[in-house]
Amino acid sequence: MQILLAAIVVVPLLGAVAALLPAPPGLKGTSPGQAVLRHGVTVTGAVLALSIALAAGFDHDHPARMQATTDISWIPALGIRIHLGVDGVSLPLLVLSALLTFLCALYSYGSPPRERSASPKAFVALLLVLEAGTLATFAVLDLMLFFLAFEMVLIPMYFLIARWGGEGRTRAAWRFILYTLLGSVVMLLGLLVIGIKGGTFDMVALATDNGSGLSHTTQVIAVLAIGTGLAVKAPMWPLHSWLPDAHTAAPTVGSVLLAGVLLKMGTYGFVRIVLPITPDGAHTFAPYLAAFAAVGIVYGSLVCLALARTGAKGDLKRLIAYSSVGHMGFVLLGIATLTPTGVNGALFANIAHGLITGLLFFLVGAIKDRYGTSDLDRLSGLTGAALYGRAPRLGGLLAFGAVASLGLPGLAGFWGEMLAMFASFRPAEGLSRPAFLTFMALAGFGTLLTAAYMLVVVRRVCMGGDGDGDGVTPANAPTGAGPLADVQAYEFAAWTPLVALTVLAGLWPAALLGLSDPAVQQLLAGGK
Q1: N or C terminus: which one in the chain shows less Cβ crowding within 10 Å?
Q2: Other C-beta atoms lying within 10 Å of the C-beta of residue 233
Q3: pLDDT-derived band of residue 442, with 50, 70 and 90 as boundaries?
Q4: Pairwise CA distance, residues 376 & 460, whole Å
Q5: In this structure, are residues 100 and 354 in contact, taking their beta carbons and an 8 Å threshold?
Q6: Where are the beta strands (DSSP E) in 347-402?
Q7: How confident is the model at residue 338 (pLDDT cuts 50, 70, 90)?
Q8: pTM beyond 0.85
Q9: Beta carbons of 497 and 413 less than 8 angstroms apart
Q10: Which helix (H) or strand (E) holds 86?
Q11: What angle separates helix 32-57 from helix 2-19, to the nearest 10 degrees?
C-alpha cells in the first residue's frame, strides 16, 4: 500500500520527463504528436489503475485511520518530512483526480489540442505535472509539502491556458497566476505560523493536538492567512473573479481539470488543515465563511440567470464557470457549520461537482468544436431543431448534465447541497442559529435560481429559441440545419464514466458517506 501511494505521486512526474524525450521507447506511431498523446493516455491510465488498486486495498472498516503511510525525514534542520497517507477524506478526491486526468488525456488523444507555438510533448508533460501536483496535494501530510504541491499545479495550468487557450487567453492566464500566487503567499505565512508555534509541520500530530499548543490569537491569525489562500482557490466570493476568465479562455481539458480538481484543493485544505488544527480560529471565522458562501451561492446563480436569458457576454463556458461559484458556495457553507453532517455534505458535493461540471465542460467543448462557437445567442438561434435534432445524443447528455447540476434527486448533485443546508439548520454549538437559518434560506433560494438558469440553457441550446419566449431569432445566428457529428467513440469513452458515476453516487450515497463520515468525526474530535 505504501508503494502504491508513492507510485501514484511519482509516476506522473516520470511520465512527464519521458514525454519530453526525443522518442519515448515503444511509442512510435503514425506521427510524433499521436505517439506522445498516446503516451499521456498510457501514463494517466496507469496512475488511475494504481489509484483503483489503492482504493481496493483500503481498509474500509477503518476509514478514519491514515493508511498507506510513508514517513521519512527530508529536511531535518527544518523538521520537514516526506509524510504521505490517505484516509476516508482524501481517498475519493485522489481517485477523482486520477480519473479526470485520464479522461482528459483520452479526450485529447481523440481530439488533439490545437498547437500554438508549442508541441504536443509540452502539452502532455504539463498535463502530467499538473496531475502529480493535484495527487500530491491530497496525499501529503506535512504542511510544507502541502504548500509545495499546492503551488506545483499553478505553472502547468498557466501554460495550458496561455498556449492552448482561446480568445483572451493571455489575460486570463495572468489573472489566474497572479490571484492564486498572491493567495498562496498569504497562506504560506499562516502555515509557517502553525509550524513554528506548534513545534512541527506534521499535519497528523497537529490535528491530534487539536490546537492545544496554539493560542487563540495564533489560531485566528493562522486561519485568516490560510483561509484567504484557500478561499482564492476554492473560489469563494468575492475572491472568485479570476475564475470566469480562466474557464472561458482555457482549452477543454484545462476547464475540466480546473473545475473538477483544482477547486477541490482549496476546500480540501479547509477540512484537512483549518478545522482540526485550528478549531478555535475556525469557530471564530465560521459565520463569516458561511456568509460569504451564501452570498456566493446567490450571486453565482443570478449571474448565470442573467447570462442565460439576456446573452450579455453569454458564453456557455462562462456561465458554467459562474455556476461553479454557486456550487462551491454550498461546499464552503457545509464546512462553515463545523458539524459532521455539514462537512460530509461538503466532501460529497466536492466529488459531485467534479463529476458533473467536468462532464459539462467536456460537452461545451464538443459543442464549440462542432458549431465553432459557445456563444449562447448564436447557439440558441440555430434554425431547425437545434441540438436535439442535429446531434440528439449530445443534446441528451447536455440535458442530463444540466439536471444533475441543478440538484435533481437521484443524481449526485442532490446529496451534498441538501446536507449542507440541513447542517445549516442546526450548526455547531456556539454558532448563531438565526444567522445560519438565514444562510440556509439564501442557499435554498440559490437552488431555485440554479434550476431556472439550467432549464433556460437546455431550452436555448438543445431546443433552439432565444430563451425569452418571443420567438425572435438573433440576427447573428449561424444558419443551416443539417446534421452534426454526434457523440464520437473517444467522446463516449471519456464521458460515460462521468455519467455512470453521477448516477451511482446519486442512488448510492452511502458509498462515499461511509468513507468520509468516520474520518470527519475524528478530524472534528481532534484526530483522537
Answers
A1: C
A2: 27
A3: very high
A4: 8
A5: yes
A6: none
A7: very high
A8: yes
A9: no
A10: strand 80-86
A11: 170
Q: For residue 188, which of 82, 180, 133, 72 has the smallest C-alpha distance?
A: 180
By CB neighbour count within 10 A (0-12 exposed, 13-18 middle, 19+ buried), where does 208 fall?
Answer: middle
Say if CB 68 and CB 2 are below 8 A apart: yes
Average pLDDT value over all residues in the chain: 85
**Following DSSP, what letter does each residue of 407-425 receive, concatenated?**
T-TTSHHHHHHHHHHHHHH
- Write the single-letter amino acid at 464: G
Mean pLDDT of 82-101: 93
Strand, coil or helix: 118: coil
> How confident is the model at residue 310, as a pLDDT?
59
Amino acid, single-letter form, for residue 280? D
Pairing between β-strand 80-86 and β-strand 67-75 as defined by DSSP bridges: antiparallel
Looking up cell 502555515 gives: 191
As a whole number of angstroms, the distance between CA 188 and CA 27 comes to 41
pLDDT attached to residue 69: 86
Cα–Cα distance for residue pair 266/296, rounded to 1 Å: 15
CB–CB of 444/421 below 8 Å? yes
- Sequence-distant (6+) residues with CB within 8 A of 257 are 100, 101, 104, 130, 134, 157
Residue listed under C-alpha cell 489503475: 49
In SS3 terms, 31-85 reads as: CHHHHHHHHHHHHHHHHHHHHHHHHHHCCCCCCCCCEEEEEEEEEHHHCEEEEEE
pLDDT band, very low/low/confident/very high, at 318 (cuts 50, 70, 90): confident
Phi, psi of 400 (to 5 degrees): -60, -45
Mean pLDDT, rounded, for 245-257: 89
C-alpha atoms less than 13 angstroms from C-alpha of 273 in its C-beta half-sphere? 35
487: pLDDT strictly greater than 90: no
Q: At which residue does the C-alpha cell 475572491 appear?
A: 239
Which residues is 82 bridged to in the sheet?
Answer: 72
Amino acid identity, position 349:
A
Strand partners, 71: 83
Task: Compute the residue count for the chain.
Answer: 528
Of 157, 180, 153, 183, whose CA–CA distance to 169 is shortest?
Answer: 157
